[in-house]
Specification:
Largest sheet of chain A: 5 strands, mixed
Strand order of the largest sheet of chain A: 1-2-3-5-4
Low-confidence stretches of chain B: 231-245
Oligomer: heterodimer
Number of helices of chain B: 5
CATH class of the largest domain in chain B: Alpha Beta
Shape of chain B: flat
Largest interface: A-B, 38 and 31 residues
Mean pLDDT of chain A: 93
Strand content of chain B: 25-35%
Distance between the termini of chain A: 48 Å
CATH superfamily of the largest domain in chain B: K Homology domain, type 1
Order of helices and strands of chain B: EEEEEEEEEEEEEHHEEHHH
Distance between the termini of chain B: 65 Å
Strand order of the largest sheet of chain B: 8-9-10-12-11
Order of helices and strands of chain A: EEEEHEHEEHEEH
Number of domains of chain A: 1
Strand content of chain A: 25-35%
């Protein structure tokens, strides 16, 4: 089957990544996959307010996912947090938490702000990729990076990194997936649609492989920030 | 069995060594037979020990660190100090070098917005305790305050203080470096600017080798351009001293 943009089933869209894009943040990163662009800024560890949220045993990881007003495909995205963005903020937290040791930051918070400038499906995955890079850029100890992508199941075929057009298809199954690229441990798995267990397992294996490709781009971007100056 | 070279930039999750011949130290951990980095940082291999020195990161309070902080609040027996990190430091009246009378207004000693050099005496999960008893611990006077990454502080100071004493000497400034990355500079305004520029440069390019020479050249150039007048004055003073001898 030919995909709408001419890609092979397990071919990812063109990716681009950069760190240190937001000056005032402790760590920041941009991740672009196809027409989806995510920026992430990390602030902290810093003091946690309101104070009743403070936990002397463990720090807090707080994510904020936001689609910018102009980021949709035509209609203005209403700028207030909605049910969808809150859910995505939550699953992003859960996807990133396994790589951090939050017990090192009692009473503190690590804030992550994810802004989507342009969207064409796979926003939460792009957001997680950017956020993982921003955390590493902020100098926060991490077990591994987190790489995320979407898996689709369309017309009896597994496709990786679905775009907006494919997502709109009737009967398309959209799976958000995040894993630690080194060990392949899954930190996010959301399924929207129907899929058989055997096919899903096959899809996950393909996605893990693709996640390694994404991780390579993330690693390169993290190092590039320092390589520039080596040349000068 | 493979190993990475020293002074290489690595990222979290990157395998530094395979096999049991190496020992993981700070900035790394062992997963079965692999040693893995947890930071974006520079590798440092000494003997069998592998370490990763982070390139960026917020300050994490450690005991016996000398830091520069700002008074943000006070009660009748404590000052609260912002050290540019996740925790707020507590300085008790008993921990300052002067005698404080019962019921005295603490603002007479250190007031809101004052910057102090203090030492971390205790770190617990609940609080970070500070002390002002010790040499060099004091309230800071007028000067220029700049902030850099706390992970770059060792580079700013240099081996046995070589870098910082060079900057002090060349720019004729008094400089106090806090382990939290806050730096206080006092001198002629132009000199302060040059010192700050040099420190920012080190902060930006700490991972490069041969930085000391570059900084020396930068200081030399800037200072001589800045004030040919004062240089002459200095030379004269030098000559006078010579005559005295």
């Amino acid at each position: 089957m030919k995909r709408s943009d001419g890609r092979a089933p397990d071919e990812l869209r063109k990716m681009e990544a950069k760190t240190g894009v937001i000056k005032r943040a402790d760590g920041s990163a941009m991740f672009r996959i196809g027409e989806t662009i995510a920026y992430a800024a990390v602030h902290g560890p810093r003091e946690l307010h309101p104070k009743f949220l403070q936990n002397p045993e463990k720090g807090l990881l707080r994510c904020n996912y936001n689609m910018m007003a102009f980021s949709g495909s035509g209609e203005r995205v209403r700028p207030s947090p909605n049910r969808r963005s809150r859910e995505i903020s939550l699953v992003t937290e859960k996807a990133l938490e396994p790589v951090l040791d939050l017990t090192a930051y009692p009473n503190a918070v690590i804030d992550i702000f994810i802004e989507l400038l342009q969207t064409d499906a796979g926003t939460r995955c792009a957001g997680i990729c950017a956020a993982a890079m921003a955390l590493a850029d902020a100098g926060i100890p991490m077990k591994d990076l987190v790489s995320a992508l979407s898996i689709g199941y369309l017309k009896n075929e597994i496709i990786l990194d679905i775009n907006g057009e494919e997502d709109m298809n009737e009967g398309a199954t959209d799976i958000a997936f995040a894993c630690l690229p080194r060990t392949g441990e899954i930190t996010l798995l959301q399924i929207d649609g129907e899929i058989k267990k055997e096919i899903l397992l096959k899809g996950l294996e393909k996605a893990k492989e693709a996640a390694r490709k994404i991780a390579d781009i993330q690693r390169k971007a993290l190092k590039e920030r320092y390589h520039d100056k080596n040349v000068a | 069995m493979e190993t990475i070279e020293s002074k290489k930039i690595v990222v979290p999750g990157e395998v530094l060594a395979t096999g049991m011949d190496f020992l993981p130290s700070s900035g790394t951990f062992r997963d079965k037979d692999k040693i893995i980095s947890i930071y974006v940082g520079l590798t440092n291999i000494s003997g069998r020990v592998i370490r990763v020195i982070p390139l960026r990161g917020r300050y994490i309070p450690k005991r016996d660190d000398t830091v520069i902080g700002r008074i943000i609040d006070m009660t009748f027996s404590n000052w609260f100090i912002d050290m540019n990190c996740a925790n707020i430091g507590v300085l008790s009246v008993r921990e300052i070098s002067e005698f404080v009378e019962r019921g005295a207004d603490l603002a007479d000693y250190f007031s809101y917005g004052d910057y102090i050099v203090c030492k971390i005496s205790k770190v617990t999960r609940a609080s970070v305790d500070l002390t002002m008893r010790g040499p060099g611990l004091r309230k800071l006077g007028p000067g220029k305050l700049i902030t850099i990454d706390s992970s770059k502080v060792p580079r700013i100071i240099g081996k046995q203080g070589s870098m910082i004493s060079m900057i002090k000497e060349k720019t004729n400034c008094r400089i106090v470096v806090g382990q939290n990355g806050t730096i206080w500079i006092q001198g002629a305004p132009e000199d302060e600017m040059v010192a700050a520029e040099a420190i920012y440069k080190i902060n930006q390019e700490s991972h490069r080798e041969g930085l000391t020479e570059e900084i020396a050249a930068l200081l030399e150039k800037k200072i001589s351009k800045n004030k040919p007048m004062q240089r002459e004055g200095e030379e004269q003073r030098g000559r006078e001293n010579h005559e005295e001898e």
